[in-house]
Design goal:
Blueprint lengths: L1 H15 L4 H22 L2 H8 L8 H36 L5 H5 L2 H22 L12 H28 L2 H25 L15 E3 L5 E6 L1 H11 L3 E3 L6 E2 L6 E3 L5 H9 L1 E4 L9 H14 L7 H18 L7 E3 L4 E5 L4 H16 L3 H15 L8 H20 L3 H11 L4
Helix pairs in contact: 2-6, 4-6, 4-7, 6-7, 8-11, 8-12, 11-12, 11-13, 12-14, 13-15, 14-15, 14-16, 15-16
């Protein structure tokens, strides 16, 4: 039952990121509401409304048909405009910032709910329209259904105004960076909290896996989610340790070794393990904090490309990277999980050294010619060098190495000697 719940939750998180999820859901609700209202009209709900509030009832069927037709045509127009606006802004975000941002922008619930409101209202009005004849009199019209249709139309107009406001806000780079940062921060803090609770020397006691039994996956994809509780329980029950050789968020090839087991596994046991691992063709920051580093780095690199040349955006991106790296330094580099004071599971991870080098290599390549950005990167590395680390002083050695590499690239790229002297003075390092 637990496994089924996890798989359903993972499936829901995946489809929730699709732009058509909430519009489809609300469209079904609008369709069902139309039939519910038809049933209520048969029960005489409009006659009750006519007796209590006759001023809310329209006079004849022709007027109602005209109003309802105008409402449908108007909502279709603003829905088409809204969808066109979404596609245009997504295209701009992809070209100006990074294509990796698209899943996060598409999965914005607010925009999906607004588009779903349009679609639900159109479907509702169309089915209500079927029940109205031009020669219907006031007492035979489905008054409550018509009144609700008008209310929904007004709601769509208000939603359209909010949609324009929300899209103009969501496409701003500061808001994009904020969104990425807080999602990854929440994920990182959750991971580091769990590691601090399990602080023990056992976290470093995992045997070598060179001679273990290796197994492949039957279908490739991005290693997105895993049920740690179920797999560690499996390891304990079957008295075997497991090593997952591909880091989370990376693409797992179909014929590449992925699972290593201390003891030989049967096909049924291997299937149980794979049932608790989710593979996908996309990835989200909520599932993998590494993606946040990639996205923010790509935003900075894109901003410093010759076609865009936006140092301000690059500086903002470096500020967010600084905070994320500081959080990452509180996390260990072993990827070992405990159960009942024994290390049963180990997952390959992107080490701090690899993560820092990957980000800095891209930033150095595109920022080394700009003295202001070089100073900003030096400041970031110096800030990280004095942060608290998780029992791993190698982190500070990695930072010192990156400072040396940055200064070496800057010295060869800065044409003005005065710029180089200022950068060298700030770094307080002989180069």
């Amino acid at each position: 039952m637990k496994k089924l719940y996890i798989r359903l939750k993972t499936f829901f998180n995946t489809i929730q990121g699709k732009i058509a999820f909430y519009p489809t859901l609300l469209a079904v609700l609008g369709f069902n509401l139309a039939f519910v209202m038809a049933w209520l009209e048969e029960k005489g709900v409009s006659k009750f409304l006519l007796d209590k509030a006759p001023q809310l009832m329209l006079e004849d069927g022709d007027t109602v048909l005209t109003i309802m037709s105008a409402c449908i045509a108007g909502i279709i127009s603003i829905m088409v405009f809204s969808f066109s606006t979404v596609m245009l802004l997504l295209s701009q975000a992809s070209s100006n910032f990074s294509p990796r941002l698209l899943p996060g922008l598409i999965s914005d619930k607010k925009n999906q709910l607004i588009l779903g409101t349009y679609l639900a209202t159109i479907i509702y009005l169309m089915f209500i329209l079927f029940s109205i004849e031009p020669d219907d009199e006031k007492y035979t019209l489905p008054g409550l259904s018509i009144l609700l249709g008008i209310v929904f139309t007004i709601l769509c107009l208000a939603s359209f105004i909010y949609f324009i406001h929300n899209m103009s806000q969501s496409i701003q780079i500061n808001n994009i960076l904020d969104n990425i940062f807080y999602k990854s921060k929440e994920r990182l803090e959750l991971i580091t909290t769990k590691e601090e609770e399990n602080d023990s020397d056992l976290l470093n006691s995992f045997p070598a896996t060179k001679n273990w039994h290796s197994y492949n996956v039957t279908k490739g994809g991005y290693f997105q989610n895993i049920s740690l509780k179920n797999i560690t329980e499996f390891c304990e029950v079957n008295d075997t340790r497991i090593y997952l050789a591909i880091p989370k968020g990376f693409f797992v090839l179909q014929h590449a070794p992925f699972i290593k087991s201390e003891k030989k596994l049967t096909e049924e046991q291997l299937k149980k393990i794979l049932d608790n691992i989710n593979f996908a063709r996309g990835e989200f920051v909520e599932d993998n904090y590494i993606l946040a580093f990639k996205q923010i780095t790509e935003i900075a690199v894109k901003a410093m490309s010759p076609g865009i040349n936006d140092p301000g955006t690059a500086i903002n991106a470096i500020d967010y990277l600084t905070e994320l790296f500081a959080l990452r330094m509180r996390k260990n580099d072993n990827g070992i999980l405990l159960r009942n004071n024994k290390a049963w599971l180990k997952i390959a991870i992107v080490t701090f050294e690899e993560l820092l080098y990957t980000c800095m290599a891209s930033l150095r390549t595109y920022c080394k010619h700009d003295p202001v950005l070089v100073e900003k990167l030096v400041w970031m590395l110096q800030y990280l060098a004095v942060q608290k680390v998780y029992k791993n002083e190698n982190y500070k050695e990695n930072i010192a190495n990156e400072i040396q590499l940055l200064l070496k690239d800057a010295k060869s790229s800065l044409a003005n000697k005065q710029d180089w002297k200022k950068v060298k003075k700030m770094s307080a390092v002989d180069s």
